[in-house]
Amino acid sequence: MQFQKLSFKNSAGETLSARLDLPADEKPQGYAIFAHCFTCSKNLNAVVHINRALAREGIAVLRFDFTGLGESEGDFSETNFSSNVADIVSAAEFMESNYEAPALLIGHSFGGTAVLQAASRISTVRAVATIAAPADRTHLLKFLGQTRKQVENKGEADVRLGLKTFKIKKQFLDDIGENAMEKALHSLGKPLLIFHSPIDSVVEFSNALDIFHGAQQPKSLVSLDQADHLLSSREDAHYVGGVLAAWAGKYMGMKKEPQIRKDPADNRTIVRTGRIGYQTEINANGHRLLADEPIAVGGADTGPTPYDLLTAALGACTSMTLRMYADRKSWPLEAVVVRLRHRKVHMSHCQNCEESGKKIDTIDREIELAGPLDDNQRQRLLEIADRCPVHRTLHSQVLVRSRLKENSQP
Q1: Is 78 within 8 Å of 12 (Cβ atoms)?
Q2: Taking the CB of residue 352, how many other CB atoms lie within 10 A of it?
Q3: In angstroms, rounded to a whole number, what is the distance separating the alpha carbons of residues 364 and 370?
Q4: Which tens digit of pLDDT belongs to each residue from 257-314?
Q5: Measured distance CA(390)–CA(385) in Å, rounded
Q6: Domains of the chain from N-terminus onward
Q7: In what order do the strands lie in the sheet with 280-284?
Q8: Which residues of 377-392 are buried (b: 16+ CB within 10 A; e: fewer)?
Q9: 133-142, 213-222, 238-247: least confident range
Q10: Buried b / exposed e across 169-203, counting CB within 10 Å, b at 16+?
């Protein structure tokens, strides 16, 4: 996933910090805005993971810090629910002026409540999604506890929320009290996708049901089994992103990428790595793949490594070759499982190597043959495995010729 660091002005002229998450080819098919949870930031892990899944499907997502939070300017104590809604509208205006107007709004927790309110003020929005969102913005009052009385009596008070302390003023309470969510839901007029966990201890699942019943069709509710409120599990966040991308594509007017014509005379594999990170898009004869590096070495672990792909090629070629041979011989081979591991070993561990001071690449290959084969058939298939085309290529002299493409752009 590529990204651009951005900033834009809110309605009060304050600068809000943002990032635009982009597909690897930086050519989005649609744009979205992600509103984070109350007192969180745009860099919450769940937001990043969900946006990565959306970017993989061609959707660019703007995530930003609300006024007074994260890296954005402004005083949090002067903000309220209405100012959050206004920040979302400002983000949409910025996108329309500089990129493309957003067709999708996504909001997590209180950000979900805000996007439901903001949707009617952004004419280009075609679909809305909420994640663990309260159905009523007065839901926040329960987190204030006894501090609420201090705010009402003294006009302001410090409130401990999570690991940070924030100043809350009476105008915040007054704004929350003006609840217009029922009207906003009824008049939404856009497809709505609701994500919520039945074990959410911060915003109860009943909120999802209230949102669902209050909205008009088309609407969908996805139950996130075992997920917590912040989607701390990477798997849960990836699941939300994948489902959301599949659902949103229908409503965002995204065109399916035309299949690349398979020309036997030009069977090139096209590979592209962008400006940030190691995530690499691969187009292999019209089929799209991803490659990456592990997190430990600076990657994002969004796909197999180049050596993973190399061993996968050998494994696939091995199993296909054995399948073809067994079919030709009418042998009862039911399935082939090939397990491979690549590593580098010292030549001293190699019986057939001339030099002992260097390391060589080795691939350990274990072949499992299922079916009522006799010993002679099994031994013959093992011999045939060494004759698969990729195996023979790896053991032959390979010439790689490189050249720079003319007029290439940086």
Answers
A1: no
A2: 5
A3: 20
A4: 544 445 556 677 888 887 777 888 888 877 778 899 998 888 888 889 999 999 999 9
A5: 10
A6: 2-251 (3.40.50.1820), 304-394 (3.30.300.20)
A7: 269-273, 280-284, 287-291
A8: beebbeebbeebebbe
A9: 133-142
A10: bebbbebbeeeebeebbeebebbbbbbbbeebeeb
Q: What is the 3-state secondary structure (H, E, C) of the chain?
A: CEEEEEEEECCCCCEEEEEEEECCCCCCCEEEEEECCCCCCCCCHHHHHHHHHHHHCCEEEEEECCCCCCCCCCCHHHCCHHHHHHHHHHHHHHHHHHCCCCCEEEEECHHHHHHHHHHHHCCCCCEEEEECCCCCHHHHHHHCCCHHHHHHHHCEEEEEECCEEEEEEHHHHHHHHCCCHHHHHHCCCCCEEEEECCCCCCCCCHHHHHHHHHCCCCEEEEECCCCCCCCCCHHHHHHHHHHHHHHHHHHCCCCCCCCCCCCCCCCCEEEEECCCCCCEEEEECCEEEEECCCHHHCCCCCCCCHHHHHHHHHHHHHHHHHHHHHHHHCCCCCEEEEEEEEEEEEHHHCCCCCCCCCEEEEEEEEEEEECCCCHHHHHHHHHHHCCCHHHHHHCCCCCCCCCCCCCCCC
- 28-80 pLDDT, tens digit per residue, is 889 999 999 887 888 888 999 999 889 888 899 999 999 988 899 988 877 87
Place of tokens 């104590």: 77
Could you tell me the two tokens for 336?
């082939």
Residue whose tokens read 């969180």: 40
pTM for this model (two decimals)? 0.71
